[in-house]
Amino acid sequence: MGSAPSKPIEHVKAETVSEKKEYKPLPSVSSPPVSVDGSLSLKSVSDWEAAASASAKTRLARAVLAHTNLNSALVRREAFIADPHVFNTELDFKTGPVTNQKSSGRCWLFATTNVLRYEIMKKLNLKEFQLSQSYLFFWDKLNKANYYLELSIQEAGRPLDDRLISHLAGDLISDGGQWDMVVNLLENYGVVPQSVYPESTHSSSSGPLNKLLKTKLREHALVLRDLSFTLRSSGKLSEGDITSALRARKEELLSEIYGVMSATLGVPPQPNDKFAWDYYDKDGKAGRWEGSAKQFYAAFSNKHYQASDAFSLIHDPRNAYSKLYTVDKLGNVWGGRPVLYVNTEIENLKNAVVKSLKAGQPVFFGCDVGQFSEGSSGIMDTELFEYENAFDISLSLSKADRLRTNESAMTHAMVISGVHLDPQCGKPLRYKVENSWGENSGEKGFFVMTDRWFEEFVYQVVVSKSLAPKELVKVFESGDKVVLPPWDPLGSLA
């Protein structure tokens, strides 16, 4: 995020594209309320029950749903028939194995390494290969700890009950992340094969470690706040001297975080340390590579479509299109690349996906995977469940409304590796999705996403500049960004 600013960033209210400045007629009120004071009336409940029990549909729903999981009972058979795992446009090289993030929130790191390994496996003729997700996880977590404590220094003058301080102290070292954050990690630390830095109990099940780290970091933030108050109260030190003293103390505190992490996750290679990696290719021929993590990343990066050259196209109908957005106080590497999004129409996201796949590039994307999806079959379809028919209700929130009301956000990152195009018009009908929940989820680890689901619940695709519309590349490179507040839905981490 660069050096710490001397004053809070002014948040700009983004220009909306979906709100219409017009007055709707007042709704007609047919009768006065049963409860004049607003409390729940038992008479209302009796009336509702009388109406419900008279409905054959409601009686059937009650007979079934009291004993059966809601989603299992209401899944539509037609969706299984309409959404086959068949795609007429796929990447020419198949990677493996299907990865598994297990009980952790590292989907963005798995999606990234699933994209990166495509080029490595092609170059080395490998049958199966994984980059170390844990290696990136370690450096991300340590950097997020530093980032939080730097913000604690920067904002030490705010009261503890200030909204910003409360927000920062929430999920302060989330397992999740964003594309620009992973680029920071790749550029600073490189990557290593999984065998060089394998999984541990606490990378695969991160909850206990996160709980301990958050407890210590909140304690550390208070230490730094108290020290800041003491140093400023003396009136004898310059701002530069105060910041220097606070950062020296911060580094002492971070050594405790490093100690906990290295004990639970293992000691990672330094990015410039040399290591040797032995492997077999598809033909059973042994190979060996020697070098550092940064050299490995440089050696096997796709020269035509480098990670650092890619950026995020998003579809956020709350805000104006063809503009650049960022979220205040969001990042992992202090002084690193900020999280940036170019907002555009949904068709541009779809076109970027198709163009990338035809160019042989898997696509990192962010979505709200928990909406209208079924894990065992791997189907993501807005018509998957019969909620409206079963309960005689209408689900009418728009994509913008879901964002405004915290009904939806970017919760999960995966990879698109194929698409089924309409033979007549060439438009996408469904997409092949590589998940990171193991091969027992979906169709041997792969999901199928309908085009309608894409429109409603995909928020981001990452595309190389050379494959993106030129006018949107100009928006990204302009640096003229709208700064959204830290708690904006675009600040959610996949």
Automatic annotation (TrEMBL):
Protein name as it appears in the record: Cysteine proteinase 1, mitochondrial
Keyword Iron: no
Enzyme's top EC category: hydrolase
Enzyme Commission numbers on file: 3.4.22.40
GO biological process terms on file: homocysteine catabolic process; proteolysis; response to toxic substance
Source species of the chain: Russula ochroleuca
Family indicated by similarity: Belongs to the peptidase C1 family.
Domain of life: Eukaryota
Gene Ontology CC, one term: mitochondrion
Catalytic reactions on record: Inactivates bleomycin B2 (a cytotoxic glycometallopeptide) by hydrolysis of a carboxyamide bond of beta-aminoalanine, but also shows general aminopeptidase activity. The specificity varies somewhat with source, but amino acid arylamides of Met, Leu and Ala are preferred
Oligomer and partners: Homohexamer. Binds to nucleic acids. Binds single-stranded DNA and RNA with higher affinity than double-stranded DNA.
Function according to Swiss-Prot or TrEMBL: Has aminopeptidase activity, shortening substrate peptides sequentially by 1 amino acid. Has bleomycin hydrolase activity, which can protect the cell from the toxic effects of bleomycin. Has homocysteine-thiolactonase activity, protecting the cell against homocysteine toxicity. The normal physiological role of the enzyme is unknown, but it is not essential for the viability of yeast cells. Has aminopeptidase activity, shortening substrate peptides sequentially by 1 amino acid. Has bleomycin hydrolase activity, which can protect the cell from the toxic effects of bleomycin. Has homocysteine-thiolactonase activity, protecting the cell against homocysteine toxicity. Acts as a repressor in the GAL4 regulatory system, but this does not require either the peptidase or nucleic acid-binding activities.
Claim: Oxidoreductase is one of the keywords in the record: no
The organism's taxonomic lineage, starting at the top: Eukaryota, Fungi, Dikarya, Basidiomycota, Agaricomycotina
Protein localization: Mitochondrion; Cytoplasm
Active site, per annotation: C107, H412, N435
GO molecular function: cysteine-type aminopeptidase activity; cysteine-type endopeptidase activity
CDD domains: Peptidase_C1B
Keywords for the protein's UniProt record, in alphabetical order: Cytoplasm, Hydrolase, Mitochondrion, Protease, Thiol protease
Chain segments carrying region Disordered: 1-37
Positions with biased composition (Low complexity): 25-37
Pfam families: Peptidase_C1_2
